[in-house]
């Protein structure tokens, strides 16, 4: 305490001496520190931004594309002949490029179509209203214009709340209100309304065409492709998480030091699956505007991807609960864990293989003959897990004999192990069986996609049918027999 | 088959006879059918839209607000003195109102500030570049203007990819590009640039002020309030789901007929919790722009709501797994279910009460003295559940005596019940214990909010401390003692 007080006194003394002589120097160093801190912050920000770009270089390309499109459209102003053609309305072409040009081709096309449709529809309506207002005489003209503006703007605003319109035509509704207001108000003043409208539509068409050309020709980013990559990537992440968490659980006591950042990152992949709903919804909405690209047709069933993602989220919820159960306080004894180990790992390995095969099927858009085999293997493994649970005493010590004479010993073993000790492994097994059921839902959803998108038939289907009992499966069958003998 | 053929022949004959005499009539009726179907679709659409409005009448009010703001701003055109003041630039006020006016106050303010900042910043930069370009001579003028446009537009576009900027200043970056392009391009042609810029900024300020006044004075919708209502509502939904699913499970055999649509809807409330992340993120981003309103200060800790929502989603994941386990194929025998019933129901009832109390705490922004008691009760119930599991044979028949002589009978009972039969109840219990742990995370997050937002102290805290052993708790203590005696 005394020491503490001394320290405080010393600091106060120092402050006083500083305050006495060199306040200017302190102010200087303070400013310097602030500047340095600001510079550091700016540097960190720029570094982060640069890393974002490095992670996905297409972002840099998109920026260059916007620059190119804008420079092209500004030629309308800089080159005299073009300027004389469209005059001051060239501004609308510039505005169109800036507002319409989006990162993905789908978004650009969607905005383009929305802008053209919204502008045209509003233009026709505004001219109609203007025509009626002029016939009504000078007194009623502002009244009719005002009332029509009020009603149509309110109706169009309301339409933006309707989910189907919000998903596809939100921007169109906005442009409708904008154009209707501008024409209906200008109509009251500008005499050469038709000429202006003509020029404006002409420049908007030029702007949109430029956007679409630049967007679709220079390294296009397709929303459909993005959705496809996101969903298939998430399938892989799901498989990694599922396998990772169970493997880590069973090897935890042995080699917990091995689990590094990399494996932890893999383990948490299921969180990406849970949190990517919003992105998927947006991408699926944009993808439907895109023309055929890569291996996707114009009317590729993008909505089915959302269904697949929903089944994946169901599965990820279960993995979340599984991880919760693994990290819970009721730890199972090592002996029980050891007995459960091989079969549990078999179940998750089979699940993970199946999910990865589904991802591969989607990536190649080719049906795989392996899927059926993998489903069978997964079902078999789940069945084995159930069988193991059914033979409860085996959990304790599988080397015990089944003789009627030994019942007493067996009973003793049972009494020693309360339910509290096996609760973790039983919950794990139960959740694994639930996960198997949910993986089947993913399989069903992918099969529906395969039907809808007409995936190519499996290349070696004939071969697969002939070799129905593949080496893998034979091994599998042998294992089952072995287990049946053991129990 | 013969019958089938006859039918086909008949139909063909009928078609021929139709084709012979009355093709005109068929065409007529076909058109009529199409019109009717179109009218029906339109009617259904309008009905759906009307219902959307009825469900949330504020949507109607928002539409009226947009209409009012637009009509007000159009006065600039209709009334001559005002028109003479700002001239053709009044168009910018109209445009501002349409683009800036959003549903929530936060969104309107955010767009307003973005628009003004983006416009001003871009304006200053554009003038600077223009000044430099003019000094460089006629030859270099378009070159400098073009290169600066290309660079700044690319940089601003890239900034929109950076998450922190995207969340708050996305619209500002867009407006920056728009304004910079328009001024830098116009600057090359229009001589009275300063005058134009002045008028334009003046009209934009008028438009934004009008938006903010209308948005904040006529039935304002606050993003913060919406977020608050969403999160507290989701807490209630979570409590209902949790209680509903376990109650339904244990009463399934008795009164499955009672479970109607209403209860099913309640049961699926947790899905709302899982799927409302995107809305919450948007609302939290908008809420930070809003001034103090209702019982929220300007710097209310909106981010903490996102943390609470994250803990709620964790809990909802577990409920999802729980429902999966309840619907799984391994049904537990009625006897075991009966023994588990009261304690399981106690756990979920306590969890649900606690979650509802948390919702109430947040709604009233007042700490509740009940929370601590409810946490204790929940912990006690969870402990009882653990105790019940520890006394495994009791699951089978709690009336069995504990005499050493009866060991043989007890053993017989144990052998009769394989793990497969108790797997469902064990998983249920395990998941309930996990849910209790996750509910505690919600409690922690709400307590953090209470600290950050400085919730009012509990009204009857003194009273609660004095009566620490409340009747409820006493009852609870008695129950525990009773249970300890039974086992």
Give a nutshell description of this structure.
Two copies of one chain form a homodimer. The first copy, chain A, is 82% helix and 0% strand. The first copy, chain A, has helices spanning 2-21, 23-55, 58-78, 80-86, 90-100, 105-135, 141-159, 163-186, 193-217, 223-255, 261-267, 269-275, 277-287, 302-326, 334-364, 370-390, 392-396, 407-416, 419-452, 461-466, 471-486.
Structure explained in plain terms:
- Chain A is mainly α and 487 residues long.
- The first copy, chain A, has helices at 2-21, 23-55, 58-78, 80-86, 90-100, 105-135, 141-159, 163-186, 193-217, 223-255, 261-267, 269-275, 277-287, 302-326, 334-364, 370-390, 392-396, 407-416, 419-452, 461-466, 471-486.
- The longest helix of chain A is centred in the last third of the chain and has 34 residues, at 419-452.
- Chain A starts with a helix and ends with a helix.
- Mean pLDDT of chain A is 79; it is low at 1-21, 254-258, 394-416 and 461-487.
- Chains A and B meet through helix 2, helix 3, helix 5, helix 7 and helix 8 of A and helix 2, helix 3, helix 5, helix 7 and helix 8 of B.
- Chains A, B: This is Putative aluminum-activated malate transporter.
- Chains A, B: Keywords: Ion channel, Ion transport, Membrane, Transmembrane, Transmembrane helix, Transport.
- Chains A, B: It is found in: Membrane.
SSE inventory with pairings:
Two copies of one chain form a homodimer.
Chain A: H1 2-21, H2 23-55, H3 58-78, H4 80-86, H5 90-100, H6 105-135, H7 141-159, H8 163-186, H9 193-217, H10 223-255, H11 261-267, H12 269-275, H13 277-287, H14 302-326, H15 334-364, H16 370-390, H17 392-396, H18 407-416, H19 419-452, H20 461-466, H21 471-486
């Amino acid at each position: 305490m005394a020491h503490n007080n001394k320290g405080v006194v010393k600091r106060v003394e120092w402050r006083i001496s500083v305050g006495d002589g060199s306040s200017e120097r302190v102010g200087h160093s303070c400013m310097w520190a602030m500047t340095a801190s600001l510079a550091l912050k700016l540097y960190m920000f720029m570094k982060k931004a640069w890393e974002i770009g490095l992670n996905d270089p297409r972002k840099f390309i998109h920026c260059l594309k916007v620059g190119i499109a804008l420079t092209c459209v500004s030629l309308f102003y800089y080159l005299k002949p073009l300027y004389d053609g469209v005059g001051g309305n060239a501004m609308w072409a510039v505005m169109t490029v800036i507002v319409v040009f989006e990162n993905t081709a789908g978004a650009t096309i969607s905005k383009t179509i929305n802008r053209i449709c919204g502008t045209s529809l509003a233009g026709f309506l505004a001219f109609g209203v203007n025509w009626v207002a002029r016939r009504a005489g000078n007194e009623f003209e502002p009244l009719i214009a005002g009332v029509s503006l009020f009603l149509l703007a309110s109706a169009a605003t309301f339409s933006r709340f309707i989910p189907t319109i919000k998903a596809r035509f939100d921007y169109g509704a906005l442009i409708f209100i904008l154009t209707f207001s501008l024409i209906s108000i200008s109509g009251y003043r500008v005499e050469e309304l038709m000429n202006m409208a003509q020029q404006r539509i002409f420049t908007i068409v030029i702007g949109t065409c430029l956007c679409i050309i630049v967007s679709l020709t220079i390294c296009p980013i397709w929303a459909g492709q993005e959705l496809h990559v996101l969903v298939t990537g998430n399938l892989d992440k799901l498989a990694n998480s599922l396998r990772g968490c169970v493997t880590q659980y069973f090897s935890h006591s042995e080699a917990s030091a091995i689990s590094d950042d990399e494996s932890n990152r893999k383990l948490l992949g299921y969180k990406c699956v849970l949190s990517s709903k919003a992105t998927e919804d947006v991408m699926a909405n944009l993808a439907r505007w895109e023309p055929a690209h890569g291996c996707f047709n114009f009317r590729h069933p993008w909505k089915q991807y959302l269904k697949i993602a929903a089944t994946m989220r169901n599965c990820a919820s279960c993995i979340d609960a599984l991880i919760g159960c693994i990290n819970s306080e009721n730890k199972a004894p090592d002996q029980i864990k050891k007995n459960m180990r091989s079969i549990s790992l078999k179940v998750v390995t089979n699940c993970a293989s199946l999910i990865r095969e589904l991802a591969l099927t989607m990536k190649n858009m080719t049906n795989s003959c392996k899927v059926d085999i993998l489903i069978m293997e997964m079902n078999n493994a789940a069945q084995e897990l159930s069988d193991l649970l059914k033979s409860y005493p085996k959990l304790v010590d599988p080397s015990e004999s089944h003789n009627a004479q030994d019942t007493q010993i067996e009973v003793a073993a049972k009494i020693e192990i309360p339910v509290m000790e096996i609760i973790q492994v039983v919950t794990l097994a139960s959740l694994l069986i639930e996960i198997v059921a949910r993986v089947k839902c993913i399989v069903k959803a992918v099969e529906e996609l395969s039907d809808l998108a007409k995936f190519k038939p499996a290349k070696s289907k004939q071969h697969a049918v002939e070799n129905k009992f593949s080496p893998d499966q034979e091994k599998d069958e042998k294992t089952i027999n072995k287990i049946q003998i053991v129990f």
